[in-house]
């Protein structure tokens, strides 16, 4: 039987009434119908809802709430009019403090289930602004000929097409309130169907838009883009190929973007295409927590893996003896060196290396380090942690954007290498989303 026929035969004609039992990791209510787990979009634990099935598989099904019969006391009215359609947020219907509890629960469940371990203590969550916090984003762009308009924003929750947005509540207001203006701009270009993406980067000194172009813009297009940047205060970059191909259109030679860590007296420069944390307030507090728990001292040798442009490396170097930062991006390592020079920090070394590959022969990898910091991508740091016995680090601080791989790596450190998981907690880097940023402390 084909997949289409199977779905059609299993979908009930009438909506289903059920009580929601729990919450999934991605923010959907979970119930059971006929012994099959059903993940219900828009439903919260404890609620009685009426929902329709949207997909049925052998082991589970998916549905969407149509009507909430009995609402959870933690349910709130979403602030964004596009919530439920736009896929950028999944938790706006859940009170902010309950979102934090949910993320704490996800972190603990993953640590126990995957890593077979749990922290001896939980930190209080690191929280910040709930709206207008997002300073970095990649916005999709699509010209829809049938509608005669351009769409700019995030994809729909249940479909790959772009949601029809005029604004966004979680983007920084400078760009969140300008989505329609941006769509109108692209719609006025001769290459409106050849602009697939716009990268947004908002520093503390200036803001930038990087337009990915599949074809060259003509002179009229360039004038319109120039005027838009001048009117709304954006640096405009055009990118024909990879990130390194981005060139400034307006102004002709803009200064780099910056962000600061005032408590450490450090200011970073970065290109709009270079990675920085999306939430600057949480980033500051995250760095403060890392400094607090790592406790770098003048006699310490510290290794910072997945260091990027030095977000942790440089603050640590203001207190430690020596710090070595390693990252897989040569461009970010070059930026980290320039930021060290810019801030007059000399007790650091930076190396470009693929931390998912063999590190045998790398001199920096053969040294001992008293303390270790990691901030890997969603894939985690298992390959690099295979070298942990060589480093003999007494203390490890692990910052994670994926609790599943943190849990896996925590199990490796605890059960294979004799570390204790002393503390863990969440950092609310992405409010109103199911994204869980976390931090963990391991000690020998």
List keywords for this structure.
28% strand; Rossmann fold; OB fold (Dihydrolipoamide Acetyltransferase, E2P); eight-stranded mixed sheet; 444 residues; six-stranded mixed sheet; disordered N terminus; 22 strands; alpha/beta
Describe the structure.
- The strands form 4 sheets. Strands 7-21-22-20-19-16-17-18 form an 8-stranded mixed sheet, with helices on both faces.
- Helix 2 (96-113) runs parallel beside helix 11 (403-417).
- The model is unreliable at 1-10 (pLDDT under 50).
- With 444 residues, the chain is an alpha/beta fold.
- It is built from 11 helices and 22 strands.
- The protein has helices at 3-10, 96-113, 173-176, 179-187, 219-232, 280-294, 313-317, 330-342, 382-385, 388-391, 403-417, and strands at residues 16-19, 22-23, 29-33, 36-41, 48-56, 60-70, 121-122, 136-144, 149-153, 197-202, 207-212, 234-239, 247-250, 257-261, 266-270, 301-305, 322-327, 348-352, 371-374, 395-400, 420-427, 437-443.
- The longest helix is centred in the N-terminal third of the chain and has 18 residues, at 96-113.
- It has 3 domains: 3-75, Nucleic acid-binding proteins (OB fold (Dihydrolipoamide Acetyltransferase, E2P)), CATH 2.40.50; 101-129 and 279-443, Vaccinia Virus protein VP39 (Rossmann fold, 3-Layer(aba) Sandwich); 136-257, OB fold (Dihydrolipoamide Acetyltransferase, E2P) (Beta Barrel), CATH 2.40.50.
């Amino acid at each position: 039987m084909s997949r289409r026929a199977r779905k059609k035969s299993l979908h009930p004609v009438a909506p289903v009434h059920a009580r929601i039992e729990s919450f999934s990791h991605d923010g959907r209510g979970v119930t059971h119908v006929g012994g099959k787990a059903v993940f219900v979009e828009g439903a919260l634990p404890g609620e009685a809802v009426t929902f329709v099935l949207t997909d049925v598989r052998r082991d589970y099904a998916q549905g969407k709430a149509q009507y909430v019969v009995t609402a959870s006391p933690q349910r709130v009215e979403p602030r964004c009019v596009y919530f439920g359609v736009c896929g950028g947020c999944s938790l706006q219907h859940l009170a902010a403090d309950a979102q934090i509890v949910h993320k704490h629960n996800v972190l603990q469940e993953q640590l126990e289930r995957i890593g077979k371990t749990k922290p001896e203590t939980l930190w209080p969550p690191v929280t910040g602004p709930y709206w207008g916090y997002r300073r970095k984003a990649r916005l999709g762009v699509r010209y829809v000929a049938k509608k005669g308009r351009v769409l700019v924003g995030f994809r729909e929750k249940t479909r790959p097409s772009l949601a029809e947005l005029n604004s966004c509540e979680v983007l920084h207001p400078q760009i969140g309130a300008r989505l329609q203006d941006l769509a109108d701009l692209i719609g006025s270009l001769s290459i409106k169907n050849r602009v697939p993406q716009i990268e947004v980067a908002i520093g503390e000194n200036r803001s930038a838009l990087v337009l990915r172009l599949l074809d060259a813009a003509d002179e009229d297009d360039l004038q319109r883009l120039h005027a838009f940047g001048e009117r709304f205060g954006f640096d405009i970059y055009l990118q024909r190929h990879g990130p390194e191909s981005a060139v400034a259109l307006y102004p002709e030679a803009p200064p780099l973007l910056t962000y600061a860590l005032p408590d450490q007296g450090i200011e970073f420069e970065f290109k709009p295409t270079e990675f920085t944390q999306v939430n600057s307030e949480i980033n500051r507090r995250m760095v403060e927590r890392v400094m607090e728990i790592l406790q770098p001292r003048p006699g310490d040798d510290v290794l910072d893996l997945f260091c990027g442009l030095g977000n942790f490396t440089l603050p640590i170097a203001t207190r430690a003896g020596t710090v070595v930062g390693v990252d897989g991006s040569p461009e970010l390592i070059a930026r980290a060196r320039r930021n060290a020079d810019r801030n007059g920090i000399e007790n650091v070394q930076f190396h470009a290396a693929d931390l998912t590959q063999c590190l045998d022969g790398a001199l920096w990898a053969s040294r001992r380090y008293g303390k270790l910091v990691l901030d890997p991508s969603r894939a985690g740091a298992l390959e690099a942690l295979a070298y942990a016995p060589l480093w003999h680090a007494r203390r490890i601080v692990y910052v994670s954007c994926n609790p599943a791989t943190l849990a896996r790596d925590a199990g490796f450190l605890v059960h294979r290498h004799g570390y204790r998981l002393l503390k863990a907690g969440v950092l609310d880097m992405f409010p109103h989303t199911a994204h869980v940023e976390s931090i963990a402390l391991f000690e020998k």
